[in-house]
Amino acid sequence: MSQNALDQLCVNTIKMLAADAIEKANSGHPGLPMGCADIAYVLWTKFLRVNPKDPHWINRDRFVLSAGHGSMLLYALLHLSGFDLSIEDLKKFRQWGSLTPGHPEFGHTQGVECTTGPLGQGTANAVGMALAAKMSEDRFNTKDFSAIDHKVFALISDGDLMEGISNEAASLAGHLKLSNLVYIYDSNQISIDGSTSLAFTEDIELRFKAQNWWVQKIDGHDHNEIEQAIQAACDQSDKPCLIIARTHIGHGSPGKQDSSSAHGAPLGKEELQKTKENLHWPLDPDFEVPTQVREHFAQCMSKSDKNHQNWKQQIQKQKDQDASWKDSWEAHWEKRVPSDLYETLCQDLPNMPDASRSFSSKIQQKVAQLVPALVGGSADLASSCKTWIKDSAHIESDSFEGRNLHFGIREHAMGAILNGMSLYGSFIPYGSTFLVFSDYMRPAIRLAALSKLQSLFIFTHDSLHVGEDGPTHQPVEHIPSLRLIPNVQVLRPADALESAACWTMALDQQQGPSCMILSRQNLSHIDRSNDFQPASILKGAYVVKETSSEPALCLIATGSEVALAQELSKSLEKKNIDSRVVSAPCLEVFSKQDQNYKDQVLPKSLPCVALELSQPDLWYKYLGPQSLAIGIEEFGASAPGQELVERYGFSIQALETKVLHFLETL
């Protein structure tokens, strides 16, 4: 068989595996897998360095299918390349418990680099991976050995480029000159509703050139053009590269090629048969993989295996020769955190009234010294969020050794770039902005939770205390909305000690993201009981103090409202109402404690009042049958922060009135 014939046979195998799986599931998107089969085949067999025997090989090339709806393209490639994905797995496409879900899911299917599907997120994940790779290069490459020298490839779609996040991510990638990043744009000019010309007519070439990318244009079905363009992209060292590949959606389908009907529905039994006839493919059996195709893919993967073995030998040699290099390498890739981190952070804590953003900043400097993998930045708010690592430089296009990142005013992309950095493996990344702007990052936070990524999101200016900037900048619903996302830790410390605990809990949580919620205004002193144990904070909620051994009421609060709860407790004591004050810096951690501990802190028999300057309804999930949640149920206003807090019912007098009325109704 000639090479051209073999190439075409391999491409048709990819197309038909995708079409058969989608037809069997009666659900899916055949258009992209068929339209991009030529591109994917050339990339995976001639360029991509991956090893199915070691899917987590550090120096592998990363392949991001940002257009995650085309997941069967990736599953077909993984199967043919020898990853742990069988024909039976392909036959279970989109079925319960299968390894082939409708969109790729990181950690679920071997070889999937990130969870994609929400368009645009993958483009920014790829930027994060490329950025992390550049930072790792500057940390670990020596004059004699390049420990990191791989590429990050992302297959992107019209839909990805319509989403605003892709513009933010590409802008930063161009600014930083991430020359290890290659986007391959599947320009099929078709969207769900029809031609992209209905809503998308911008010149993508000029857009990316303006963002400092190197741009090539090719025929996405011409193997020579595809190979030459990818090779040229790999050879250049000055800019990220965009390859605009003109393709035909549903390529090879006589009735659906270049049609929007090929995008999100099976070809149909009749059209599938016509497609197989058109491609000279056997009508039976389904899921056919010719022997020549398997052998060819195995031969291509064997080249990567040799590269992988050579790399492993060089890594071991470098470790043996340089103990300091070895320690740094392992500290980063293991994301090493000292076992006594909390005890260390609790030493010499600031003891003056201050904002929790300031407490957190001081503690973060200690964390940075102890956890080399910690890196991050802000969306142009480092001075307000106070998240700068003081003993380190910032990342620039010609120097990636620093630990401080300037994301610019790009919250959408910042969140997804952090996820890409977390996925890459050598860093624990954080990003910061005001809490009200967490709305811009919510898709990335959700995907971090779904993918179980250790991304840290630091949000300051956490309540009406923002004051004069007004309701546009005063978060009301944001804390409970973050708590609603499964597998997210929401951390809101009340003082310096709790800030140390929150940093510890965030770094202990390696299977999901943490959102740290910090104040702009100074916090009052927390008066704890004499038998208080600092380790109890790490359980998410604990008894701060109580006015008698038999309290009539429990007051539970977070952040700045803990001190307010203490004031309220003292005021109620004057009316002969004894109370317990509980601080809950992390309800998610508290929920994971054994029932005995939870009952000790919040006895079901004890009436409970929750205080928090946010929308209160979610609190009833955590409280007993006799409970009241006092919060903010409307937008704020422009005025000094303390005045706003009092006008919206958080003065001691107003709170006392509400609590007394609540007790009367019991």
Q: What is the strand and helix layout of this fold?
A:
Layout: H1 3-25, H2 31-35, H3 37-46, E1 62-65, H4 71-80, H5 87-91, H6 121-140, E2 152-157, H7 158-162, H8 164-176, E3 181-187, E4 190-191, E5 194-195, H9 204-210, E6 214-219, H10 223-235, E7 241-246, H11 269-278, H12 291-321, H13 323-333, H14 341-345, E8 354-355, H15 356-370, E9 374-378, H16 382-385, E10 404-406, H17 411-424, E11 428-434, H18 438-451, E12 456-460, H19 478-483, E13 489-491, H20 496-508, E14 514-517, E15 522-523, E16 542-546, E17 553-557, H21 561-573, E18 579-583, H22 587-591, H23 595-601, E19 608-611, E20 627-630, H24 641-647, H25 652-665
Parallel strand pairs: 1-2, 2-3, 3-7, 6-7, 9-10, 9-11, 11-12, 12-14, 13-14, 17-18, 17-19, 19-20
Antiparallel strand pairs: 4-5, 8-15, 16-18
